[in-house]
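Sanity check

After download, print the first record. It should look like this:
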Amino acid sequence: MNTATTLAEVKSPEASSFTIKNFEILEDVDGQYDFSIVSSPDFDEAFHQHVQENISLGISPSVFWVRFIPPAENYFDESDPLLLNFTNPSINKLDVYIPVKDSTIAKGRNYILKQAGAERPGTAREIWDADWTFPLPHQYIQGEYIYLRLQSVSVMNLPVMIWQEKDFIHAALLKNIAYGLFYGILLSMVFYNLFIVFVLKDRTYLFYVLYIAFMLIYQFNSHGHLRLWLDIDYRLYNALFWFCLSAAFSFAALFSAKFLQIHSDEIFLKRIFNLILLLSILIGILGILGCSIPANWLSHGLGLIQPLVFIGLAFYRFRNGFRSAIYYLLAWGILSCGILGWIFLPDRTTSSNVLMLATALESILLSLALSARFRDLRLTQLTLTRNLHYYRDLSLTDALTGLYNRRCLNSKMQKEIRQALTEGISLSLMIMDIDFFKKYNDAYGHWQGDQVLVGFSDVLLKNLNDTQLAFRFGGEEFVILLPNLDAVETSKIAENIRRDFAAKTFRPTNKKTVQVTVSIGISTLTAQDNEAALFERTDKALYEAKTAGRNRVVVR
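Expected structure tokens:
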């Protein structure tokens, strides 16, 4: 089958580069053919026209023979050497057979063999470039096929170009500047957020840093720059590749689960994230053990599915009021577009550039998402501590609720009892305990438990005046001193507190609301009381309220 075309007629003379598009393919399933057999006239009919413009053969264990006819010499500036360029640094083995004139043999033609590929040592690289580039001999025979033997466990997508040397150097410079910007963006995101990790001690930032760091090493590896700079044994190079890819998948899942606040009671979502983690680890194990083809298929599938899962969950969280999820949503949306472009765009250079741009934008947007999350948490924290301004002496207040603390209670209670007994005025004591608080904490976490404590302190302050002092005694237990009030008046306030708190709604997860109750004990000071006696009697009233069924007020 001969599909040779007079390429010089299509383009103007002295072009800077030319992309080969007409290929003929022969699949050697068992790898049994050698070049002498494949290049013989008997095998002409075994080659078939490749329907795609680039060599795109998917993931396959087969050996593929490819042949094409380069453009005529007068197509280029003859004073400038020509370079044959293959744009896929991940291909395992690439053998190039170039026909040249040789007067020492009968046919007057011989073939020069150029060998390259990720499995080959660095000495096989004739030109220092991440892609595979060879000088094209001036004595190569025009109108004759150049043969390629390809073997790879990764995607065999191989654009082929012929360059003028000076134009290749210029294009390589621009390409490496773009790579430098790309790696620089990822590296700056790593160091910037690593600093925040040490400051905030937040695991969400740590998972983000590890995700971007491993993604950076993976990209440095997959674009051929690690192999270019560090000529290590292929087995180690391959193991590092799969370890970094597996780690990037894993930490992306851990970061997303932490950022989007996946709770222990959200069983379905937890199972999804556990499955992603399991597949991520499996990819690494398969790749490191040498099962690269199933690892490649699995990684491509997970690379498509994982962003879609994250996008769906982020959209769900955003609709439920998690505002900082918008940046996260944009980040994975852009990366998904980049992955789709990388898979479906026919030109590998364009698709690779699209994926690099998408990855860089994703890293920036995820960093913005973390900043927005930190800002929201900061605003929440400021809201939770707004009652601190009610009490100027910070050493006597509880940092979470803004109420007086137990230390303050000891001094205030002594003073109020002494004053009440001296002046003959009423003094009532109220002790409150939030019902089933430990179960709430265990089910939804301490942060959500803190929201209940803050919510209860808001109810207290709403029902008390400036002379009625509220204290956080410890944990979920609160105390109120009420000067000049007897048991009847105190009971009315206690009922208002109990009712208002029972009506308050908490949202520990985005899919459910919870109401919490409080039990209250009350006692009024007598002439025979001291501090311990009053407190003990009120505590017994609280115990009676809890044993009687909770969510009630008991007076003793």
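If your output differs, re-run the checksum step. Summary of this record's structure: Confidence is low (pLDDT under 50) at residues 1-13.
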